[in-house]
Design a protein that fits this description.
The complex is a heterodimer of chains A (501) and B (331).
Chain A (H helix, E strand, L loop, with lengths): L5 E10 L2 E11 L4 E5 L6 H8 L7 E6 L2 E3 L4 H6 L2 E4 L11 H5 L6 E2 L2 E2 L1 H14 L15 H14 L4 E5 L7 H16 L3 E5 L3 H7 L2 E6 L2 E7 L5 H9 L17 E10 L3 E9 L3 E6 L5 H8 L6 E6 L2 E2 L5 H7 L1 E4 L3 H5 L6 H6 L13 H14 L16 H13 L5 E5 L7 H16 L3 E5 L3 H7 L2 E6 L2 E7 L5 H8 L12
Parallel strand pairs in A: 3-10, 3-11, 6-9, 9-10, 15-20, 15-21, 18-19, 19-20
Antiparallel strand pairs in A: 1-2, 1-4, 4-5, 7-8, 11-12, 13-14, 13-16, 16-17, 21-22
Helix pairs in contact in A: 4-5
Chain B lengths: L1 H34 L6 H26 L7 H23 L3 H27 L5 H19 L4 E3 L2 H7 L1 H4 L1 E2 L2 E2 H19 L1 H11 L1 H6 L4 H27 L1 E3 L6 H11 L11 H20 L8 H22 L1
Antiparallel strand pairs in B: 1-4, 2-3
Classes of the chains: A alpha/beta (501), B mainly alpha (331).
Subcellular location (chain A): Cell membrane
Protein name (chain A): Sugar ABC transporter ATP-binding protein
InterPro entries (chain A): AAA+_ATPase (IPR003593), ABC_carbohydrate_import_ATPase (IPR050107), ABC_transporter-like_ATP-bd (IPR003439), ABC_transporter-like_CS (IPR017871), P-loop_NTPase (IPR027417)
Chain lengths: 501, 331
């Protein structure tokens, strides 16, 4: 095999004090499809962004054609033929397809744009991808798979030597995936080096020549795809020891308290049912985008839904979040900054927002608010240098603790916690885990939604796993394993043996 | 570490912007005193305050609308329309009932109800039909303006002589030498400030303007609060009209012209964020006073032509926004 075109040598990357990549070695060779797999947060995206010049490594070096290189930005990388296709589309929604394909490197005739040439070239690219969208169509009006094809057409038009694809098939149907694979194979024959990531291990096995597994920012193994099975890959992705980060689990056998039946959120969640028992910690697993959050939001009254939700036997109407809260159901959002806290407001104003009416009517009693904040700071160990500071200036961990305090202010019987520890350090994680256990011990019932497998396994005695908007299965007791959850989450068959309770 | 130093260095700057409108007002008063000894005379001050009361009352409502992330361009036209309708119905009632206090009360009720209805229409279309506030109120601005022109048949609607004499004291008389419009403005300003700072409604307005999604996830009734801000503004327009009609006893197509811009300008000068999320009624009151004192000063002195009033007000508005943007960047 020829030498690597683009490679990482002992690359580390830190965001602030947290190191997310610990000495990664990784090489892309011309004419080879190299798959990079790992769980959410394993460092795949960071690795790709360093390769494509979007991020600089903190340590180690990037080499291009054997020589060390420091990209000034993704522009320089693109000029060298390194093109990345993003998972979130990087398209200008209001421009047409051809305008997007040639954005920033428009074809010109003299001073003016050569519209005709660009349209013809775009049409050629699209027909190669068997995409029937009109090159003149506005991108905001085309379907999601078509957008993916436009991204790919854009990359093809750049004469890529290295193509980095971040989960390109996540939004494609099987047929569209096949078309994409034919293009990948064609590019491979032309000698392009391709980096491919996917959560679908079957695809990796099918298309990749080499597969590298990343776990917690460390390269775990790298093999020729022919030498490994899907099971080997899954084991390598999740195989990690659980420390005593988690408090002992309580197995609860209380009465059902929350019963959701046939919940459907059009286009996102299909016919999902679940039951939560008193004093139980129930986990919901599944990939990002599998409909976990939407299911929880539908139950909490934050989204229109079909299907019924009963709390203590009484039905909760759809779309009535205030009523659900008064009935004793609280939801903690995964989107802390976008939907959880008012970043430019103070701690006090954030804490009491959901329950302002109970702090005095018609005039708010500021002393009672301050007292509530005192209690929250003590109970949740919130560290704020100054009580009057804006919440946006708190650390992520302290924001999360404040959000927990805010959610629990209404003294709910049922709490749904979506990604309890996203983006926070290990110490705060442990505090939040023991807090969740404590809530369950008090007789509250908790649903934990998480992308982090150890979190689900460490906290929940029963885990419901979602795949593509449906509940793929349920695991309980000793059957709650990383392998079991990953299997269900990836829609792999043969995991039904784990169903037994 | 960095956050701690940020808060330390930012603190005095925030305090400065908190009092900046007040400082500007004091500077303006100082200049006025230096240029013309009559500036601080009782007659001049009450005159300025009484004239600014209409815009002031509307600007109080505008503070809530803007704080909740909205905008209402229709208030000036709405005021003209409400005034026209009030005068027209009072004249008709005078014919059927004869002149008297009941006609005045009926007129006031009609003004308040029309204001409420107009605000409700704005609010319901913005919240339920999801029309951009700027566009919708631009549309209703044209509609109300054209309706009053039509009601007046292109001319002027005048209150009958007897009723005008009877209604006059609402603008021209008062208590202890303070005219009624000033008293009403002051009372509403105090109530507004309390509502903004100390009630759930005021806090909810700021929360919605700051981040609507967070408010919704915190079980705040976002649409209802939004709607309420427009209804409140409509009612306040009605009150302003009740105080305004006795002044001239007439309404025409030019009544309340550009009031919406003056009200919005006063709100922004007062330190309320145009993008919403933070508002203060006392600041709006200071903003109203600054704008009307500028006009008054130019009239009292020969220093600058009164025709340049608009230019100077414009400079003040731009300065206020620049100041706001600087604090925004510091956040």
């Amino acid at each position: 095999m020829s030498g690597a075109i683009l490679a990482l040598e002992g690359v580390t990357k830190s965001f602030g004090p947290i190191e997310v990549l610990h000495g990664v070695d990784f090489a892309l060779h011309p004419g080879e499809v190299h798959a990079l797999i790992g769980e959410n947060g394993a460092g795949k995206s960071t690795t790709m962004k360093i390769l494509a010049g979007y991020l600089d490594p903190t340590g180690g070096r990037v080499t291009f054609e054997g020589k060390p290189i420091t990209f000034t930005g993704s522009d320089q990388a693109e000029d060298l033929g390194i093109v990345m296709i993003h998972q979130e589309f990087n398209l200008a929604e209001h421009l047409s397809i051809d305008q997007n394909v040639f954005l920033g490197r428009e074809l010109k005739r003299g001073l003016l744009l050569d519209h005709k040439a660009m349209r013809v070239r775009t049409a050629e690219l699209l027909s190669r991808l068997e995409c029937r969208a009109d090159p003149g169509a506005q991108v905001s009006r085309i379907s999601v798979p078509d957008k993916q094809m436009v991204e790919i057409a854009k990359a093809l038009s750049r004469k890529a030597r290295v193509l980095i694809m971040d989960e390109p098939t996540a939004v494609l149907t099987e047929k569209e995936t096949e078309i994409l694979f034919r293009q990948i194979e064609r590019l491979r024959e032309e000698g392009v080096a391709i980096l491919y990531t996917s959560h679908k291990l079957g695809e990796v096995k099918r298309i990749a020549d080499r597969v590298t597994v990343l776990r917690d920012g460390v390269m775990v193994r790298s093999d020729r795809t022919a030498d490994v099975t899907e099971d080997d890959m899954a084991t390598a992705m999740v195989g990690r020891e659980l420390s005593d980060l988690f408090p002992p689990k309580i197995t609860a056998h209380g009465e059902p308290i929350l019963v959701a039946e046939s919940i459907t959120v059009p286009g996102i969640v299909h016919d999902a049912s679940l039951t939560l028992h008193k004093g139980e910690v129930l986990g919901i697993g599944g990939l990002v985008g599998s409909g976990r959050t939407e299911l929880a939001e539908a139950i909490a009254g934050l989204r229109p839904r079909q299907g019924t939700v009963r709390l203590n036997g009484a039905e909760l109407p759809a779309g009535q979040v205030a009523q659900a809260m008064r009935a004793g159901l609280a939801y903690l959002t995964e989107d802390r900054k976008g939907a959880g806290l008012l970043l430019e407001k103070t701690l006090r104003e954030n804490l009491t927002l959901p329950l302002l009416e109970t702090f005095g009517r018609p005039l708010i009693d500021h002393k009672r608010e301050e007292a509530a904040l005192d209690r929250a700071i003590a109970d949740f160990a919130i560290k704020a240098p100054d009580r009057g500071m804006a919440v946006g200036d708190l650390s992520g961990g302290n924001q999360q603790k404040l959000l927990l305090a805010k959610t629990l202010l209404s003294d709910p019987q049922v709490v749904i916690i979506d990604e309890p520890t996203r983006g926070i350090d290990i110490g705060t994680k442990q505090q939040i885990y023991s807090l969740i256990a404590q809530l369950a011990a008090e007789g509250r019932s908790i649903i934990v939604i998480s992308s982090e497998m150890p979190e689900l396994i460490g906290l929940a005695s029963r885990v419901v796993v979602m795949h593509a908007g449906r509940i793929a299965g349920e695991l309980s007791g000793d059957a709650v394993t990383e392998r079991g959850i990953v299997g269900l989450a990836m829609g792999m068959d043969g995991s039904s043996k784990d169903h037994a309770a | 570490m960095t956050t701690a130093t940020n808060t330390l260095t930012r603190r005095p700057r925030v305090n400065l912007t908190v009092i900046a409108p007040l400082v500007a007002l004091l500077v303006l008063i100082g200049i006025g005193m230096a240029l013309n000894p009559n500036f601080l005379s009782w007659a001049n001050i009450t005159n300025v305050l009484a004239r600014s009361a209409f815009i002031g009352i509307i600007a109080i409502g505008m503070t809530f609308v803007i704080t909740a992330g909205g905008l209402d361009l229709s208030v000036g036209s709405m005021a003209a329309f409400v005034a026209g309708l009030m005068i027209l119905s009072m004249n008709m009632l005078t014919e059927s009932m004869g002149p008297g206090l009941p006609v005045i009360f009926a007129g006031i009720a009609i003004a308040l109800a029309t204001g409420l209805a107009a605000g409700f229409i704005n609010g319901i279309l913005i919240t339920r039909a999801g029309i951009e506030a700027f566009i919708l109120t631009l549309g209703t601005m044209g509609i109300y303006r054209s309706l009053v022109t039509w009601l007046a048949d292109g001319g002027t609607l005048s209150l009958g002589f007897e009723m005008r004499e009877m209604y006059r004291p609402v603008y021209y008389s008062g208590v202890a030498g303070i005219a009624w419009p000033i008293i009403v403005f002051a009372v509403l300003a105090i109530l507004g400030e309390i509502t903004m700072r100390h009630t759930a409604f005021g806090r909810h307005c700021a929360a919605i303007g700051s981040n609507e999604k967070v408010a919704r996830y915190s079980s705040v009734a976002v649409l209802r609060v939004r709607l309420a801000t427009y209804v409140l503004l409509g009612v306040l327009v009605g009150i302003a009209v009740v105080m305004y009609v006795p002044r001239l006893g007439s309404a025409s197509a030019t009544t309340g012209l550009l009031w919406e811009l003056e009200a919005i300008a006063a709100v922004i000068i007062g330190g309320t964020l145009l993008k919403g999320g933070f508002g203060r009624v006392w600041g709006t009151v200071v903003g109203v006073l600054i704008l009307s004192l500028i006009g008054n000063l130019l009239n009292l002195t020969d220093f600058v032509s009164p025709y340049l009033n608009g230019a100077i007000q414009g400079v003040v508005i731009i300065l206020a926004v620049v100041l706001q943007r600087n604090t925004g960047a510091a956040r």
